[in-house]
């Protein structure tokens, strides 16, 4: 099959109507065709130095996705010379996108050989993925919070373009693609405008290889004609090699080569004119119908060029410095953060709201707890002027903490507890005062059981409200101790004297115990969820896969996101510490030089867990559910609400390995015990993070 047919296809102005061609069009041939013909002639005369640059070369490529019974690609062979436009056609699910992903280096677990510019995509010296390829995916795959100019500038910076070069190219692409004002955000554009911005991002650096997946969908006919003219110009003037897929079959008559795929096989790879001549039809759509009507096995590929290519075309190694890509991603991250009000609200106000609610609702002693009192001695007060012992005891109970309600009988007082009106009932004996006096008059010779029983106060209580009951018990013990000390003139003072606390305060509340845990839990949860939201959203939008084709490595995404998140984390920690100081009166100012490093490191630990979840899931909902599901067991195991020493031995061992446990213990020791870096718990908290 002569190479001359290739020259005819590139010179025809209307495929399928060769009789109407102008003589100048027949004589005129592209430089690429002349080069192929020269190579063919050299090959015929035995010249081993024949060299036609081959940009894409696939040999016996097969690929099967995990959990799929059948292969998506089956022994695909494809040769694409430099400067050609290759139209890839086929029904949905035939393997077109999978084939493109193999060429772009996004899929590597295939059998066979894939070479782009003579190198395996993704290899050390290859610029694919990277500046060697421009990619427009079928999805929009753009950052919706960025403007048109910011989007094109971002991709220009990823490709290492200079600022003036980027500005000049943006100006050209805006005019050429008839895009609206560059300040408009991508999310405010129509679908057609978004696709044009996507095409502009692929063309921004004029790459030697251009891969376009449905580039003209949603584009008006006039603009579609302009795009094709520009692609032809790029192929002929800039020697750009272009692979595109499209639903408009007749549109590919302007391509230099056309490939038809079906069920993972490349059935035909030919020039449009040769295909129509071979099948004796007038349109490529008829060719497609002819191929679709036959079994896959009966469609044998027709090879176009019978030349042995000496080597592939290689690019000049233009590596983009890592810091350039990281800076571009960082700038993009801050722009998205600034424009996403929901995430900004979530980051800044959520910690403040949580700490305010926590400080108001948790940790204080309960006030005005109802206590029922049955005191039959009350009636004696009207007949006697001296103060009764029962009244003396009740006077030691703080009125602001306990609200005492008198009842006329023992049964009524106990019934109020049963009905939930009171937390407890104090029951006095009718002769309490008389027996209490006798009880303390002769402490050295006390053996009368009746005096003992009649001078005892009975207390009936409700333990279903344990926090309130603990507060009541504390007040009753304090009142009893004060009464005994007064009546015994300190002869019955406790044998155990509790001195001033070495660490903490005597009146330390439960809120002060759990505040370090709450702060660390808030930091952990916010860091995980924000990391997951950012990365999984990018994966869902397709923008993450697109920047990978642009040559961005995973570690560069992680570093850039960590820097952006670190700034956000610093704001969160500042608001948390300030709010906790104001609302919970939690004094930690003198130890900020230790608290800040622990909390920042803890936030980085949470980010790493967010990266891990993001690498597993493609769906935002599943990723968030996993984050929440992992957080609550960790919250319980980490000693936030209760010390891990109170857990069973197996759980105690497991709890020590939870990511929040040691940092919380370190935070608590720094604030409550006022220790520093010489303390083992502090060292462990920083070290584990």
Automatic annotation (TrEMBL):
Membrane topology classification: Multi-pass membrane protein
Subcellular location(s) of the protein: Membrane
Superkingdom to which the source organism belongs: Eukaryota
Keywords for the protein's UniProt record, in alphabetical order: ATP-binding, Membrane, Nucleotide-binding, Transmembrane, Transmembrane helix
GO cellular component term, pick one: ATP-binding cassette (ABC) transporter complex
First-listed, main subcellular location of the protein, grouped into a coarse class: membrane
Pfam families reported in the protein's UniProt record: ABC2_membrane_3, ABC_tran
Listed Basic and acidic residues bias regions: 20-30
Database matches in InterPro entries: AAA+_ATPase, ABC2_TM, ABC_2_transport, ABC_transporter-like_ATP-bd, P-loop_NTPase
Stretches the record annotates as Disordered: 1-30
Transmembrane segments: 341-362, 518-537, 557-582, 594-617, 623-644
Molecular-function GO term, any one: ATP binding
Residue ranges annotated for the ABC transporter domain, each copy included: 56-288
PANTHER family: ABC TRANSPORTER G FAMILY MEMBER 20 ISOFORM X1 (PTHR43038:SF3), ATP-BINDING CASSETTE, SUB-FAMILY H, MEMBER 1 (PTHR43038)
Protein name according to UniProt: ABC transporter G family member 23-like isoform X2
Species of the source: Dinothrombium tinctorium
């Amino acid at each position: 099959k002569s190479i001359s047919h290739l020259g005819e296809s590139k010179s025809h102005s209307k495929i399928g109507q060769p009789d109407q061609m102008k003589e100048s069009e027949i004589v005129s041939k592209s430089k690429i065709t002349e080069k192929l013909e020269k190579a063919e002639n050299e090959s015929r005369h035995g010249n081993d130095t024949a060299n036609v640059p081959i940009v894409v070369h696939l040999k016996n490529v097969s690929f099967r996705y995990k959990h799929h019974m059948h292969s998506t690609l089956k022994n695909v062979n494809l040769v694409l010379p430099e400067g050609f436009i290759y139209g890839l056609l086929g029904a949905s699910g035939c393997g077109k996108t999978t084939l493109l992903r193999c060429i772009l280096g996004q899929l590597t677990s295939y059998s066979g050989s894939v070479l782009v510019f003579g190198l395996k995509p993704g290899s050390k010296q290859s610029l694919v993925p990277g500046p060697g390829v421009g990619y427009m995916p079928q999805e929009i795959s753009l950052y919706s919070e960025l403007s048109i100019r910011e989007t094109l500038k971002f991709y220009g910076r990823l490709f290492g373009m200079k600022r003036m070069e980027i500005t000049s190219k943006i100006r050209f692409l805006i005019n050429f693609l008839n895009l609206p004002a560059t300040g408009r955000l991508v999310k405010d554009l129509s679908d057609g405008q978004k696709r044009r911005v996507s095409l502009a991002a692929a063309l921004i650096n004029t790459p030697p290889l251009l891969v376009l997946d449905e580039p003209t969908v949603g584009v008006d006919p006039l603009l579609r004609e302009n795009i094709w003219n520009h692609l032809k110009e790029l192929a002929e003037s800039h020697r750009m090699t272009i692979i595109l897929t499209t639903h408009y079959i007749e549109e590919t008559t302007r391509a230099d080569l056309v490939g038809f795929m079906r069920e993972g096989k490349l059935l035909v790879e030919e020039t449009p004119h040769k295909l129509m001549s071979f099948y004796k039809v007038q349109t490529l759509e008829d060719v497609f119908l002819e191929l679709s009507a036959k079994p896959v096995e009966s469609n044998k590929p027709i090879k176009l060029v019978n030349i042995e290519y000496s080597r592939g075309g290689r690019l000049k190694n233009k590596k983009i410095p890592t810091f350039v890509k990281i800076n571009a991603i960082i700038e993009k991250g801050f722009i998205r953060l600034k424009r996403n009000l929901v995430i900004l609200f979530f980051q800044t106000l959520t910690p403040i709201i949580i700490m305010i609610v926590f400080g108001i609702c948790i940790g204080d002693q309960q006030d005005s707890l109802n206590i029922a009192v049955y005191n039959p001695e009350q009636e004696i007060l009207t007949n006697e002027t001296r103060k009764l012992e029962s009244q003396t005891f009740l006077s030691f109970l703080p009125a602001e903490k306990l609200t005492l309600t008198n009842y006329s009988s023992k049964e009524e007082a106990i019934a109020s507890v049963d009905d939930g009106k009171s937390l407890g009932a104090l029951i006095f004996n009718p002769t309490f005062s008389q027996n209490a006096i006798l009880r303390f008059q002769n402490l050295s010779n006390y053996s009368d059981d009746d005096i003992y029983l009649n001078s005892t106060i009975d207390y009936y209580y409700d333990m279903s409200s344990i926090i309130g009951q603990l507060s009541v018990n504390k007040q009753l013990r304090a009142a009893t101790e004060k009464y005994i000390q007064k009546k015994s003139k300190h002869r019955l003072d406790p044998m155990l004297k509790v001195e001033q606390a070495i660490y903490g305060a005597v009146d330390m509340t439960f809120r002060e115990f759990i505040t370090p845990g709450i702060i660390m839990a808030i930091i952990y949860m916010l860091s995980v969820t924000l990391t997951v939201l950012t990365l999984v959203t990018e994966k869902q939008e397709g923008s993450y896969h697109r920047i990978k084709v642009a040559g961005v490595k995973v570690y560069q995404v992680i570093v850039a996101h960590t820097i952006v998140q670190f700034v956000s984390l610093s704001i969160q920690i500042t608001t948390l510490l300030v709010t906790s100081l104001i609302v919970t009166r939690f004094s930690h100012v003198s130890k900020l030089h230790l608290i800040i490093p622990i909390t920042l490191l803890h936030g980085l630990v949470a980010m790493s867990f967010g990266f891990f979840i993001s690498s597993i899931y493609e769906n935002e909902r599943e990723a968030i559910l996993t984050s929440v599901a992992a957080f609550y067991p960790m919250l319980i195991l980490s000693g936030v609400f209760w010390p891990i020493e109170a857990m069973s031995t197996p759980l105690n061992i497991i709890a020590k390995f939870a990511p929040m446990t040691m940092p919380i213990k370190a935070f608590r020791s720094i604030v409550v015990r006022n220790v520093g870096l010489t303390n083992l718990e502090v060292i462990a908290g920083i070290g584990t993070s």
